[in-house]
Every structure is written in C-alpha cells, then in structure tokens.
Amino acid sequence: xxxxxxxxxxxxxxxxxxxxxxxxxxxxxxxxxxxxxxxxxxxxxxxxxxxxxxxxxxxxxxxxxxxxxxxxxxxxxxxxxxxxxxxxxxxxxxxxxxxxxxxxxxxxxxxxxxxxxxxxxxxxxxxxxxxxxxxxxxxxxxxxxxxxxxxxxxxxxxxxxxxxxxxxxxxxxxxxxxxxxxxxxxxxxxxxxxxxxxxxxxxxxxxxxxxxxxxxxxxxxxxxxxxxxxxxxxxxxxxxxxxxxxxxxxxxxxxxxxxxxxxxxxxxxxxxxxxxxxxxxxxxxxxxxxxxxxxxxxxxxxxxxxxxxxxxxxxxxxxxxxxxxxxxxxxxxxxxxxxxxxxxxxxxxxxxxxxxxxxxxxxxxxxxxxxxxxxxxxxxxxxxxxxxxxxxxxxxxxxxxxxxxxxxxxxxxxxxxxxxxxxxxxxxxxxxxxxxxxxxxxxxxxxxxxxxxxxxxxxxxxxxxxxxxxx
Length: 471
Known about the structure:
Layout: E1 5-7, E2 10-12, E3 18-21, E4 28-32, H1 37-56, H2 59-75, H3 77-88, H4 92-112, E5 118-121, E6 133-140, E7 143-147, H5 155-166, E8 170-174, H6 180-191, E9 201-203, H7 208-216, E10 222-226, H8 229-238, E11 243-247, E12 252-256, H9 262-274, E13 284-290, H10 294-306, H11 326-341, E14 345-348, E15 352-353, E16 356-357, E17 360-363, H12 370-373, E18 380-386, H13 389-397, E19 401-402, E20 404-408, H14 412-421, E21 426-429, E22 445-446, E23 449-450, H15 455-461, E24 463-470
Parallel strand pairs: 7-8, 7-10, 8-9, 10-11, 12-13, 12-20, 13-18, 17-18, 20-21
Antiparallel strand pairs: 1-2, 3-4, 5-6, 6-24, 11-23, 14-17, 15-16, 19-22
C-alpha cells in the first residue's frame, strides 16, 4: 500500500515512490513519495493559513475530534499493529500494545485539556499592587512542526498530534522514513474525521532537505522532535527564535542493591534491556550491582535472557525481532567484539543473524567502552559491580545523558537519596528505567533533551500564556 502526502486536507499521490522492506524478511511492505523543499514550504503555508480557523474551532469539537480518532483507531487496531510490524519489525504483541497506548494518549489529551485553561491572581498581594481581575489564559502557539522516529512510529506521533491539535494548533508532520504507512494511516484518521478542522494537519515525507526547511522556517512556533542527539544539535543551532521540545538519546541505568529481590529484578531487567531489540531511548543499558551479590544477579539475568524467544516478529510469542537496519546490527556486533578484545566477558548472546542481534549480557566491562558510555540502541546490557550506593550514583551520573534511571532496593533511605541524587528526568523505584506511563511527564536533562512529553505537559509546550489585567 502506498503512503500518500497530505497537503492539509488534500491527499496527493505521486508516481515516483521509495520502497520500504520489512527488516526481518525484506519483503516490500509499503511505498512513499520523497518530498522536497517546495513540498515543505507548501505544507507550512497551508498550516499558517489555517491556524486562525484552528484556534477558533470550539473546544468541544476538538475534543470530539480526538475521541473520534481514538474510536476509529480501536476498530483498526489489528491492521495498524500489523503495519507497524511490517515496517519496523516490532514483534506483533508489542505492536498491538503500542496501538493501545496511542489510543490512551489521544484520550488523555482530550480529557486533560479541560484543566489547562489558566489561573487567577491576587494583584493586591503586594504593597505595590491593587485590586483587579487578573488572570492568564493559554492560547495555541499557531503552527507546530512534529518530527518523529521509527522505534514507536505510532505512539510517538500520537504524543505530538493529539495535544497539539486539541489545543487548536495546526501541525506539519514529518514522520520517520522507515514507517511512512503507519503515519499515513494514522494521519488519515484525523483528516477524514467529521470533526476535523480543515487543513489543520499536513503530512510530508523527506530527509535532510525537508527537515531543514521546516525547522528553519519562520512559520512554526514550536519544533517538537524525537530522535538523535546529532540532529537535536542541528535543530537548536538552526531553528531560530521559537519553542523547541527535544526528546533525544539516553543511556539508562539501574542499581541493584543487596537487599533487593534478585530473581524479580533480573526478570524485569531482561525486559528493560531487550524489549524492542533495545531500540528504546530508555532501554536498560547499564546495571550496577553491589559487588557481594553481582555474581548471583548475573546468573539470574543470564538465565532470564536465555528464556526470551528470538525470531519472526509475526509470531505472538516472539519477544525480540530484528534491528531496524544492517548498520545497527553491524554496530552492535562490532561494539561487542571490541569490548571482548578489551577484556569484557560475554555472558550470553552476541550473535548476529541477519538483522537480528541476540540479546546480549556483558560482564567485566570498563567505563570507557562504547557499550557502557555510548547509547547502543541495540539488545546489549552490561553488568558492573560496585562497592556501594555512592559509587553506583557516581557512575550512573557520569554520562552525558540523563533520561531515566532506577534502583532496586528495600532500603527507604536509599530510595530517598536516589530520587534526590540521580541526574535525570525520571526515577523509577524497584522497576526498570524503561518503565513509562503516558500520563506522566517524560523527558530528560543534559544531552537527553529539553521539554517534556506526556499529554498534559505537551499541552503546555504547545500553548502560549497570555496575561490579562482588568481594572
């Protein structure tokens, strides 16, 4: 099936198309047209022309719009899940889970908007003030540019479209080139809804030319990007004066303290390290364990890892499928081989089978190895023995990234310290740092980005505050 362009509400098909092949069996699963600078400028102009109408669309209609899309997505759940699996190789069970999360994200956006209207102030609270009717209200920013990645090609689009549109904005969406049909089917639900605002959403596909055009334009007020640190750097340098929300890389870590339940924590860590083949910004990559129990924990984690089914993403019980491309699989293999040559120990995994890289547990690693200090975005996790909590915190924080960290412990004092001392955007207690609830604020510090996702927090990113004083 072809993924067409949407210039606002107008669907446009083209003859020259790029093929997308399934990462597992390399069958052609979708095709899309590569857009150019003129297409990007056209989409931006349509969005700009439509922003006044979008702002004036009644809130009840915008809420109905999202509710309609959520209900249609529920009906098409299996088809969309299959499309996700086709395009990015995500195991079908997890693809179905992603569709469910997208439905929830849309519904959350529709409900949370009701509590984001503004606030009253007492302007006579200071000697220099006096009584008035003073408040602030939230207004849509106007035009939003949304750029999304391959690893969650539906839910991460939902995290941008739903809050942006329910606020009364217009959006130009540039989805990942790896999953154009997923984005097309999703955008089509918004555009063809009977409650839609005309021309409020455009969908274009492209590479650097399209991306740089929509980022550098003076039309958008917000650039919402999820992707690599390298592209995040480019956006911050070229976007100009506008709001920027960046969800970038991560190097998630956890600390296993000696009072923790090792079997339970090992089961959770295996999931956190290898779900979606490690292609998650908060994929568990570093596990710091009290040295007295490191060997015992390593044994449990290795045992749990070997239980995971690896193979076809179309089978319901498959846990780990292929990486997105050959480059990712080769990088994973090379980094593991380099680490072994430098003294690391391969506890299990480490095999490349096409684009599948088997879930890999490494021991005896060093802090400067790529598999420890860089974001691997592959199914590789390293176990590092530490003397105590203080050393664990030092090593966990010794990273340019700060998205999410976690701790497994029954010591309440360490829980409180972890919350205070971890340098990151999110802390998880007695579970993996890969845990994310869509209702929560999500984002990081340092090179992990700026701004927050999560329906209520994205609404704040996609609105401006206007202060009003009436005397």
